[in-house]
Design goal:
Low-confidence stretches: 3-10
CATH class: Alpha Beta
Number of helices: 9
Strand order of the largest sheet: 5-4-3-6-7-9-8
Order of helices and strands: EEHHHEHEHEEHEHHHEE
Largest sheet: 7 strands, mixed
Strand content: 15-25%
Shape: globular
Distance between the termini: 29 Å
Helix content: 40-55%
Number of domains: 1
Bound molecules: S-adenosylmethionine
Structural class: alpha/beta
Number of strands: 9
CATH topology: Rossmann fold
Radius of gyration: 18 Å
């Protein structure tokens, strides 16, 4: 949604706060195993991510801004690990390029079903392809913007370089990769501080200490974070000439890699 306020254009993101409240880890049996993006998670996802990721609303709003600036005419924008389509929606709301296509990919069918519903209002005016598949399997081509918003952390560390090389190869000169991740810090004191502040953020957003600790355990083998330095070096090895950190809030960062 773009609101004109005097001479300033404000990009406001429109997360569906009517979605069911996330209380999965209040009632969940703590021995239920690893976190999965199944129907239960998908049904509360918008509430979960906006209460769990510090700065999420800002990141999504800036994805919209970047889409308006960087998506080129006659090219593709890929949203990889699109979930329910929150970032894709911000792209479509801010798209200026002519004859461009959005390809939103997620391996969870429960997620792509909700993504289809969320993006259906844009389908008259835009070419939108919502794909249920592993992002390591899909072809990337003619891309002027690729979004990996909190997704790479769920890809096996061994496969990350190969995926980024494929993305780089499929991108147009002047294209951008937006990579947001939860990160760890080499300095143990900083790691403890940033993690502690992140947990305070979650508590202020209504999660109990028990829910925070249960989710942390469930994510332990599933979300494998890297340091900012590891990300930047890997992007360089993938071919990206320049990478800038444009956002950080506690242990969440967003990087902009340019081809
Ligand atoms: C934290 S969510 C991403 C949030 C989303 N990008 C956004 O901006 O709101 C991670 C998503 O990545 C998806 N995912 C994880 N591994 C995947 C893979 N190998 N291929 C495709 N999607 C994957 C999950 O199903 C989940 O929906």
């Amino acid at each position: 949604m773009l609101i004109k306020a005097g001479r300033i254009n404000l990009i406001i993101i429109d997360i569906d706060y009517r979605m069911k409240r996330d209380d999965i880890f209040l009632s969940k049996d703590p021995n239920m195993g690893d976190f999965v993006f199944d129907e239960t998670v998908a049904s509360v996802f918008d509430d979960m991510i906006s209460r769990s990721v510090p700065g999420y609303a800002s990141i999504v709003a800036m994805i919209g801004l970047l889409a308006g600036k960087y998506i080129q005419d006659n090219t593709n924008c890929y949203d990889l690990g699109a979930s329910t389509g929150i970032a894709s929606k911000a792209v479509l709301e801010n798209l200026k390029a002519k004859n461009s296509s959005l390809i939103a990919v997620d391996s969870s069918k429960a997620m792509t079903e909700l993504c289809k519903a969320k993006l259906s209002v844009f389908s008259d005016k835009n070419v939108i392809n919502i794909v249920t598949d592993d992002i390591c399997n899909i072809h990337i081509g003619n891309a002027s913007m690729v979004i990996l918003n909190l997704t790479l952390q769920f890809i096996s560390p061994d496969s990350r370089l190969k995926l980024l090389k494929k993305i780089y190869k499929g991108m147009k000169p002047g294209g951008i990769l937006l990579l947001s991740e939860k990160v760890k810090f080499k300095d143990k004191n900083e790691d403890m501080l940033q993690t502690e502040l992140y947990h305070v953020f979650k508590e202020l957003n209504g999660y109990s200490k028990l829910e925070i600790s249960r989710k942390r355990t469930a994510l332990e083998n599933v979300l494998v974070s890297d340091t900012i330095d590891t990300h930047i070096k890997r992007l360089k090895r993938s071919g990206f000439k320049k990478t800038y950190k444009w956002f950080q809030c506690f242990n969440f960062v967003s990087l902009l890699a340019m081809k």
